[in-house]
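Thread: Vesicle transport v-SNARE N-terminal domain-containing protein, structure

OP (GT): Posting the sequence first so everyone is looking at the same thing. Length is 219 residues per the record. Can we get the structure tokens written out before standup tomorrow? I want them in the notebook alongside the other entries.
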Amino acid sequence: MSDVFEGYERKYCELSANLLRKCTSAGILNGEQKKQKLAEIKAGLDEAESMIRKMDLEARSLQPNVKAVLLAKLREYKSDLNNLKSQVKRISSGDPTSARDELLESGMADAATVTADQRGRLLMSTERLNQSSDRVRESRKTMLETEELGVSILHDLHSQRQALLGAHNTLHGVDDNIGKSKRILTNMSRRMNKNKWIIAAVVTLLIIAIGVILYFKLK
């Protein structure tokens, strides 16, 4: 449904109800007061016709399925406007008593129809408002649930970050221990190599000494 059309529709219904009241008043007036009231009614009819034209243009600019519904409503409003024009003509030229009685009878029926129509639109508006409120509540509920989920995820990420920092510190300590062990092993390797050279030198000296001793004994 078009919001623009609904705005024109509300305006027309208000004009129609106001014109009905003025027609009822004009039916019991005479002389200049009646002429003045009829002038007001004719000005109101012109404004009502303007609303009808605006509704027609707006309805024809919409999609076909919406357009068909609005044009059907528009035909009812055009019929209502024609009835108002006929009543004004009868008041202007007919017998005051019969015109007044006919106007009161038809005016009450039309007023009841307009009132029922306005009540129906009011109920529809209230229902749409309630539906909108329900959607707002659902959206707010979803937003709160999403917020709680986000807080939970942030808490989990913080816990994981702390665990990763702890693991990093542990790995850093392991690296330090590995470095120390590597230095110790390097020192041990150097000492072992040094001891090998010392042992080799001692063995060499012993072999030379034994050779010298054997040489002098056998000589």
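GT: Both are above now. Quick notes for whoever picks this up: The CA atoms of residues 116 and 152 lie 53 Å apart. Helices lie at 3-26, 31-60, 64-93, 96-218.
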